[in-house]
């Protein structure tokens, strides 16, 4: 799989290149600033891009903006954003075009190499990978009204796992329930959030979106 | 949505009737002051035999209260707004010390001048009133003579008209008097306001002295706050991340030593090391957020407040209308003030919704935070609200709290500042 990496710290950039190449990815470009990133993304159209939020020249959210810019030119371009901190604001912006194929993780998650590589693969395949920190912020919020309030605690757990980007079997494993029970919960979630039956994958993204929007 | 006024309505919004009402209020205050005059004289005389000192404190307090009342009332009809009241601080105890502070304060003497000039102010307004009264009297007299309602009356007790021209003469004088009343009234009022304003305004020297005193206090507060903040950061780093990195180094060193003899334990230690790294990163992240939230650096006040509203427990409506970014320190102070106020709202108010409104006008950043909670918030010393006020003080900012029991609570923050990098960021959202 072809990857573009954007990270301004040389040490971390080299580490990411080594890590991804050791797991059968081909790094087609590794850049250290926003303008170069957008050029590389539109030129190479990689299978997935791993992008740091804060990049030169402005050292603000240059990486995020470049990624969003590239996504508007190459719709659905899979982007995994890494950041020292997670903001729901950014998570929403990434998910706002409803095509999935985004991830938003804390840089710390690189420490768990297996899960990190899995997340990169999932985003490359068009799925989502949200950081547990984003999800736990949402769980901490009390929803007084709206369809989300109708979900049972178990369904909320399943939705949280889904938002992190896990498959049905992975969710079953983590919650110690059967896969059948998982798909039953997921169907209940779709009904309660009033998501019309289309392909399961896009419904998953929509459910996560509804979740992130707290509606 | 409960909307707080961002700027108090200016005096130019007041109509003539309102001005008249304020005028009546002002004159009644003047008359109240006149009643105070004998008390002041008595206490001055008594002071000669030392008995008067407590009376000085009493009368000065009364005088200051009255003067301040008039300053406030005048502020309602003046274009310049409220007249500042600047008195030197009076020591909390000691009759001699307090009386001394009052007597040596030049503001006291200016107040006294205002007190003794009260007859002049009152007569100033009485001139057009007298014209009006006499003019009306002349007209009524003519009317009476013509209709012969009350027989055998004389104007001022001596003028009894016998023929028609003599009957109509008071009509002419009455008209002249009323015209005089008409043209003197606005002048007399203006003169009255100017005169009282002149007497009640602090001298430039007193104003500057008070300003220097305020700056010295707020600077000391700022330095204290910052020093405390740096100590907190040092302690957090020392006890948190730094300690964890030491543990990490130890674990790695031990793992290195035993990697060949006991690879299983070495692996456990490496896993522990990774966990320690994660904790250290988490602590550093929280620390950074407490110093200066990354989203504030990346998106400014605009993005940071939206992000704050998104993760908050309450649904919050945000309207922000800024043509650029304030200076970094102002941005940061405003952000932390908002965050603290929202935390307060959640903790104490029992509100179910909050509104944040941010705009910039007249070179001030104006932030209004409203909630539909139970009210009763006040900035008692040592409370979080008092802390916010102290921090805003460093920027000459102000905080106004309106929080009647039963709610709603409206907190308005105003920080003088200019905006940089013009770009329009109007937006609104409900979360």
TrEMBL record, chain A:
Residues 2-122 form the Response regulatory domain. The keyword Transcription applies. Coiled coil: none annotated. SUPFAM superfamilies: CheY-like. Keywords: DNA-binding, Phosphoprotein, Transcription, Transcription regulation. The keyword NADP does not apply. It holds the Pfam family GerE. Residues 144-214 form the HTH luxR-type domain. SMART domains: HTH_LUXR, REC. The modification 4-aspartylphosphate is found at residue 52. Gene3D superfamilies: 3.40.50.2300. One of its GO terms (biological process) is phosphorelay signal transduction system. GO terms for molecular function: DNA binding. PANTHER family: TRANSCRIPTIONAL REGULATORY PROTEIN NARL-RELATED, TWO-COMPONENT RESPONSE REGULATOR. This is DNA-binding NarL/FixJ family response regulator. It comes from Nocardiopsis aegyptia.
TrEMBL record, chain B:
The chain crosses the membrane at residues 20-41, 48-67, 112-132, 139-159, 171-193. The keyword Nucleotide-binding applies. It catalyses: ATP + protein L-histidine = ADP + protein N-phospho-L-histidine. Residues 329-419 form the Histidine kinase/HSP90-like ATPase domain. SMART domains: HATPase_c (SM00387). GO terms for molecular function: ATP binding; phosphorelay sensor kinase activity; protein dimerization activity. InterPro entries: HATPase_C_sf, HATPase_dom, Put_sensor_dom, Sensor_HK_TwoCompSys, Sig_transdc_His_kin_sub3_dim/P. Keywords: ATP-binding, Kinase, Membrane, Nucleotide-binding, Phosphoprotein, Transferase, Transmembrane, Transmembrane helix, Two-component regulatory system. It comes from the Bacteria. The keyword Transferase applies. Its EC number is 2.7.13.3. One of its GO terms (cellular component) is membrane. This is histidine kinase. It comes from Nocardiopsis aegyptia.
